[in-house]
Amino acid sequence: MTVSEIFKFKNERIKVLHFTWFAFFVSFFTWYNMAPLATTMLEAMDWLTPQHIAALGICNVALTIPARVVIGSLLDKYGPRVVYSGLLIIMSIPALVFAFGDSWAQLMIARLVLGSIGASFVVGIRMVAEWFPPKSIGFAEGIYGGWGNFGSAAAAMLLPWFGLTLLGGDNGWRYALAFTGIICFVYGIIYYICVRDTPEGKVLMKPKRSGALEVSSWGDLVQLIVWTIPLGGALAISAWRLEGLGFVSQTALYVIWAVLVIVLIYQIYMILKVNVPILKKGVPEDDKYKFKNVGALNSTYFANFGAELAIISMLPMFFQLTFSLSASQAGLIAASFAFVNLLARPLGGILSDRMGSRRNVMLVYMAGITIGLVGMGFMDSSWPLVVAVAITVLTSMFIQGAEGATFAVIPMIKKRVTGQIAGMSGAYGNVGATVYLTLYTFVTPQQFFFILAGGALVSFLICFFTLEEPENSFGEEYYMSSDELKVLEAEDKKLHKKAL
């Protein structure tokens, strides 16, 4: 796929791509609606404090981790069209509750539930994979992720103007927040009407069994369980941070941890329930896939998207204090991270499509992130500002390009469980952000950049030793096993009978 093709709106797959990245844009526009209006909320509600805002920030991402895993499973079962539409429509409710909430309980619960909209990302990954062949999937997924992710920057730029300048008054900010919920609801309906899961004549491949990601060997089963544990661990860390801020009692913290342990036990039970019968029966050789590739991509998204979220959270203050800038100047520099997404993520996908080896592109990006973050670790007030900004932007290009390269590989690992694989890898991005931001509270900014570089280096090593080049990396069709081809033939016969 060429750059010019993305403007051919009469082409149905291009139309689906645009409808889908805009659904992601709407999701992030709504998800990040609080930050630009946080100071206004503090002024409007006398009882609200900066500690409340910090706690709401934690609530905003806490449920994103399990939601991405759950949504990944649902979309493989029901299809991305229904799941994306349903998610947008349902999430309009907590968005509206938050907009008009006037008590801590209302704000906290609404924000906690609204964090589930962050799972929207994985839905589009599956949708785009259904419409684009392997040879151009990287560029298409990069457009989806990069342009959609810009919704957070759009919220930062537009919502204060819309709520405080255009609407004004005591409740203008509330109407601006409510506006994001209305957009969610309306676009959820539009998306359902205007797209379909697959191109004409193709069927949606579904997992053999639902409830957990299917694997191909007993060793892979152990790996899946091991990689599942940190997902709950990140939630435990979030609860610990809330307890440290004084919003959760020690008793409540222990209750939350106990619940997380019970949930983990249930997840492991479901993993065993789904996979033990499959493995006992035996997986045909051509239907197997290696879970180590999923683990490698979990590590890359932990290291790149986790680093992005963490850096965005601390970069404005770092530049403001290090280079004696005004808040607006530092904010403008920090905003470059979001703007770079428009170009960097699609570029990562394009390079993955065109350089002949998706694995090597991934390795180069992870090495680039490591070097760039080491450079940022040496930045101090003696550096020329222009050099510091240049290194920051270059590092951002590598970080977000790596995100595009990651999701250029995921649809090719095992097509019928793409949603679940994308859900797990996507969740690891939030795990990375949680771990990194917790570590940030104990170190200096320079030390923090070195920690991020260490994470990228570990991911590079994991990919170097475990990530393999996918089957049909640059083909016209995704790799299909003999079992999958039989299912497709049966579905084609059903469609043909219906047509007659």
Q: Describe it for me?
A:
The protein has 500 residues and is mostly helical. Helix content is 76%, strand content 0%. The protein contains 19 helices and no strands. The chain has helices at residues 12-31, 38-44, 50-62, 64-78, 80-100, 104-114, 120-131, 137-149, 151-167, 172-194, 218-244, 250-281, 291-322, 327-354, 358-377, 385-409, 418-440, 445-466, 482-499. The longest helix is centred in the middle third of the chain and has 32 residues, at 250-281. The two termini are 35 Å apart.
Number of helices: 19
Please tell me how large the radius of gyration is: 22 Å
What is the share of helical residues? over 70%
Counting DSSP E segments of at least 2 residues, the number of strands comes to 0
**Estimated structural class:** mainly alpha
Distance between the termini: 35 Å
Low-confidence residue ranges: none
Morphology call: globular
Q: Can you write the helix and strand succession as a string?
A: HHHHHHHHHHHHHHHHHHH
Mean of residue pLDDT? 87
Main sheet properties = none
The proportion of residues in beta strands is: under 5%
